[in-house]
Specification:
This protein has helices spanning about 150-165, 175-185, 210-220, 250-260, 290-305, 315-320, 325-340, 350-355, 360-380, 395-405, 415-425, 430-435, 450-460, 470-480, 495-505, 530-535, 575-580, 600-610, 615-625, 645-650, 665-685, 700, 745-750, 755-760; strands spanning about 45-50, 65-70, 75-80, 100, 105-110, 115-120, 130-135, 140-145, 225, 245, 270, 280-285, 310-315, 385-390, 550, 555-560. By secondary structure, it is of the alpha+beta class. An eight-stranded antiparallel beta sheet has the order 4-3-2-1-8-7-5-6. A four-stranded mixed beta sheet has the order 11-12-14-13. Strand 15 (about 550) and strand 16 form a beta hairpin. Helix 9 (about 360-380) packs across helix 10. The protein is globular, with a radius of gyration of 29 Å. The protein starts with about 40 loop residues before the first strand and ends with a helix. InterPro entries: MTMR10_PTP, MTMR12-like_C, Myotubularin, Myotubularin-like_Pase_dom. This is Myotubularin related protein 10. One of its GO terms (cellular component) is cytoplasm. One of its GO terms (biological process) is phosphatidylinositol dephosphorylation.
Length: about 775
Amino acid sequence: MFSGKQTKPTFKSYLPPLQTDLKKSPQLPIKKLEAKLLPGEIVVNEANFVRKCIGAESCQDDLWGKLVCTNFKVSFIAHNSLPRQRFQCTHRLLGEHDIPLACVEQVVTVNDVKGKQKILGSNQKLKFNPTELILYCKDFRIIRFRFDEAGPESAKKVCLAIAHYSHPADPQLLFGFEYVGKRYHGSTGERVNGVDPGGGLQTPLFDCSSDWDREIKRTGASEWRVCTINQGYFISPSLPEFFVVPVSLADQDLKQYACCFYSQRIPLWCWNHSSGSALVRMSNISDPQQQRKVEQRISSAITKSHPLRSDVFKSDLDKNLPNIQDIQAALLKLRQICVIDSFEESEEKWLSSLESSRWMEYVRTFLRHAVEVVYMLESRHVSVILLEKEDRDLSCVISCLVQLMCDPHCRSLHSFQGLIQKEWVMAGHRFLDRCNHLKRNDKEESPVFLLFLDCVWQLWNQYPAAFEFTEVYLTVLGDSMWVPVFSTFLFNCPRQRAEHSRDFASSKSIHLGQDQALCFPPVWDWSQQFSLKDQTLFNNPLYVGKIATCVQNGTVKTFTHRRSKKNYSSTLRGLPSALRNGSLGPNDTLARRNSLMLRLRSDLSQVREQQETPSERFVRDFFSRPVDLQGLLLPQLLPSHLSVWKLYFLRWVPEAQIPQGGPITAFHKLSVLTDEIEMLQNQLRQYQGAAGTPNNLHAEHSKMYFKATSTPHQSPAPPEYLSSSFPFSPVGNLCRPGILGTPLSKLLNGAKIWLSTETLANETI
């Protein structure tokens, strides 16, 4: 019936063979994919059969699904999903594959068939059908989508929509207005479901006189008072309605002097030292004819507020610190070498590139200047005025760093948030412009706040037990700048928030009732973003607070951190401890056997004493004593003492990830130990008849993310999912374009991927 000889086919096809590689869409079951929307969020455009690139060298792990653009985010809804990564925090406003539009820095479309690529801006046309979309994000992520199986028109439309909505033309087009208007305000002015955004917060917002009164009493600033002349923002548009001034300055004098200062920004009190010295910030005097007179009057008032009538020291920040353009340029270079160029930390080229970015140099410069101000307050007992042209950028950084170094109160979580609220938000830092939420003026964009967080992290890294919060908290706080629904990072000053929210409410017919403006939630209400369980990642198991005590041999003792005699923090073996802190100690030399240094020891000591400045001696004396974590903290400032903030800058880099390694392993063990101690203390209280949490509810009320087991003497093993990027994952968040099938190290060695418009205009694929 069937011939044993197989017949030769005679049909000849002139079509190319079908592509059967992994790029072809797999046969997926029909599944309805819908984006999860927040109140006020709408879908603008979408494309089906889109592939999100996951792996760097292979596409077999890529995800297929729908790409959606809303008025808030770029959302990818996957048909299939990656294995559940249990360590990832669940964000209540964003999904696993969501990117806030405010976080999108560049939208690059590519057609790899025609060899074309283009950076898309708002209201631009796209003359080719894109086969690939690359999103460069401000949080250092690079996200890639492929349109191999998507319709060309839908792919083009969704790319144009993302480019358009990531460049809002007006602040009121930012999603936060729609979100707050829909979630918190009803049509008749009542609060929706009785919700009060930010209600019940322990963080002081410094938007009322009572918060300032409490701060005056806490610091003992009896010669200072709360001033209310700017209520309604009648004096200065960028100052808060309430601020603190010397008692000896009358309101009428302040109104008279206001016109002499840049933007009518009257000098602001920041903080008082226990000696009575005050930290004050001030903008430049714009009227040269009145400069001498006004400066003398302000200085005299500050001198009178000091119990010893000490002189006033003026610190010109514009002359001693890098400007906002320098800081922005440094971040762009840092981003290039951290996530785009080849990551080889051990290579000399990578380290020299890091140095040439000047980011670490600027971090060190700000810390060093803060130490100089601390010296004037702590050792010289004189008041300090921080001078800056606008008093809205550099002074925010220095004033906060000085208070963190001097005042242990500021190192608790809620007090640190109050510090940012006081010195950044209410003082009028231009978050809207510096974050460039509107993409209007790149010259105004500058990561001043991120630089401040890096400086704080350097302090935290040297004294982790002195801070209640963790580096995860600092990283999440930096990311929150790109979720534009919080009042904290959305405006340039309190007056701008009030004006825009009133205008928006009027245009949308929202009756505010007793409220003067829309009630934007502050970022400090972390329940808006994370569950209580995930918020425990902010709690530092090492923190030694004022009330932290221990009982030893029947005696109550407070925890103190004492420096051991041997210090191995330097990479140079045998380096004297004082030299590691920036100067030589009286008995320290770099002596070698048969060296002339042994014979010249006394001569060098005399030279050192002659050349050492009082501030250097102050720093040397500090490091010669045991460190009190509830007292003054000074950073070690040699380059070898400062590190790259890896959890922020390198968390998406697969090559930098250390499975089962990094600081998280110590964090896990310390958290378990702290939780076990808390559990045992609770059991002891119950045994003694005091009130305590039942054992079955201990895990629910624990402050630690990682918890001890209920079985004594059995410490839980570190989870397998721990890595140095915890709680973040580089999977799918750093897909550099054009590396498929190419050895990563060779290609990235000369890659230039974070492209400028000029570069793209001259290059093709």
